[in-house]
Design goal:
single chain; 257 residues; Immunoglobulin-like; four-stranded antiparallel β-sheet; three-stranded antiparallel β-sheet; elongated
Length: 257
């Protein structure tokens, strides 16, 4: 009777554990930008497609990162934060995740592998570097660019008043709402285009790619930046879209034919 009772108990809990993981789907949602060597905030969207039964104590493992969901009602979805890190640049395909649960009595942990479809492009690692570029030769690119912001062009940001700005730059409406003056900073229209030649940067291939990626990431929001990869050339433009275009070209350079 004792053995029969134990076998019956194992059968019931085994069936409950199987139902707990049944009809679960997982979607992996990537962020807009993923850089090699940096944690990227992904989202795991878990959906319970069961009509009547909820799911309990569900753990999702993706690319070594683990996220846990305590309770998910039937027909509901939940978003779990998931920090992923990729060591190398280039295209990455994540095609599966592992879901597991100790429910209902924590005697056994049942685990299933679910299919996901997430193709992403990992941008190069960002490594600050020294370059030779016009009058900035021998200096770090981030040094001194605040002097190149002008009083024309598009508004770039709102900052605190330092006493060096002209009255024309004061944002009077925002200043009236606070106790301190607010100043408009404009993106200068006189900034010269910057053309990055990968062959002229220091280091090995990966070092040059990481250096170029840092220059692109730092400068493109503020001035036109172009890129020369061997015989292939991308003309200088400014803005977020240009930054992503240049980073994508660097991500696959030397990795794909």
């Amino acid at each position: 009777m004792v053995v029969s009772g134990l076998l019956a108990f194992m059968s019931v809990t085994g069936y409950a554990g199987m139902v707990n993981l049944q009809r679960l789907t997982v979607a992996l949602l990537p962020p807009a930008e993923v850089y090699a060597g940096q944690q990227a905030p992904f989202v795991l969207r878990v959906t319970n497609l069961k009509r009547r039964f909820p799911s309990f104590l569900v753990t999702v493992v993706c690319h070594g990162a683990r996220s846990m969901l305590v309770y998910l009602p039937s027909g509901a979805s939940a978003d779990l934060p998931c920090e992923l890190t990729f060591a190398k640049r280039g295209r990455v395909l994540l095609n599966s995740v592992q879901v597991s649960s100790p429910f209902p009595v924590n005697f056994f942990v049942r685990s299933w592998r679910l299919t996901v479809s997430c193709a992403l492009l990992v941008y190069p690692r960002l490594v600050p570097c020294w370059v030779q570029a016009g009058d900035d030769r021998g200096r770090r690119l981030s040094d001194g660019y605040c002097n190149q912001r002008g009083t024309d062009g598009d508004i770039e940001r709102i900052t605190e008043y330092t006493g060096r700005e002209s009255l024309r730059q004061i944002h009077w409406k925002l200043s009236a709402r606070s106790e301190e003056f607010k100043v408009k900073q404009y993106r200068t229209t006189a900034a010269e285009p910057l053309m990055i030649d990968l062959d002229h940067l220091p280091g090995d291939l990966e070092g040059r790619v990481s250096c170029a990626a840092w220059i692109v990431h730092h400068w493109t929001p503020e001035r036109p930046v172009g890129l020369r990869l061997g015989e292939h050339q991308l003309q200088p433009l400014a803005g977020r879209r240009q930054m992503q275009l240049l980073l994508a070209a660097l991500a696959i350079y030397g990795v794909e034919g």
